[in-house]
Amino acid sequence: MQAAGRPVHAVGKVGEMFAGAGIDGVHPGATNARAIESTSRLIDELDSGLAFINLIETDQVYGHRKDTQGFHRALREIDVAVADWCRRLEPTRDMLVLTADHGCDPTTPGTDHTREHVPLLARFAGHEGRRHDGALSDVGASALEWLTGETDPELPGSSFVR
């Protein structure tokens, strides 16, 4: 993204996950509420670029700790935030992608990651009602194409923009 002149913003632990590489701005997100607040502010402030958000409590606090009530509350808070973000985003300009890198079902035995399919929800112009059953790497390829109009055959994944 940076090579294409698009700023990359990290919310929560994303900056740490990538050791700061490829990140232009780091924003608070030690809790889901802070990450949601930072994301809402970025939606209002950014003209272009990528905001990469991690809602850490959903995984670390509720999923691994088997706190089904907390997990339920977190999902409800995320639902409210996503509805708000969808109202704020410009559908012909902005893309919203929600996904996860692993499962963490608080109702299963043990505290490890779980093996269910992770969600991949995308909202952008021209994508209404389509289904995508590809790989997680397709998110990066799609974001690159959406933000730059280009694809990169060196990157894994296939864009679902078209």
UniProtKB/TrEMBL annotation:
<dbReference type="Pfam" id="PF01676">
    <property type="entry name" value="Metalloenzyme"/>
</dbReference>
<dbReference type="InterPro" id="IPR010045">
    <property type="entry name" value="DeoB"/>
</dbReference>
<comment type="similarity">
    <text>Belongs to the phosphopentomutase family.</text>
</comment>
<keyword id="KW-0479">Metal-binding</keyword>
<dbReference type="GO" id="GO:0005829">
    <property type="term" value="C:cytosol"/>
</dbReference>
<dbReference type="GO" id="GO:0000287">
    <property type="term" value="F:magnesium ion binding"/>
</dbReference>
<dbReference type="GO" id="GO:0008973">
    <property type="term" value="F:phosphopentomutase activity"/>
</dbReference>
<feature type="domain" description="Metalloenzyme">
    <location>
        <begin position="27"/>
        <end position="147"/>
    </location>
</feature>
<dbReference type="GO" id="GO:0009117">
    <property type="term" value="P:nucleotide metabolic process"/>
</dbReference>
<dbReference type="GO" id="GO:0043094">
    <property type="term" value="P:metabolic compound salvage"/>
</dbReference>
<keyword id="KW-0413">Isomerase</keyword>
<protein>
    <submittedName>
        <fullName>Phosphopentomutase</fullName>
        <ecNumber>5.4.2.7</ecNumber>
    </submittedName>
</protein>
<dbReference type="InterPro" id="IPR017850">
    <property type="entry name" value="Alkaline_phosphatase_core_sf"/>
</dbReference>
<keyword id="KW-0464">Manganese</keyword>
<dbReference type="InterPro" id="IPR006124">
    <property type="entry name" value="Metalloenzyme"/>
</dbReference>
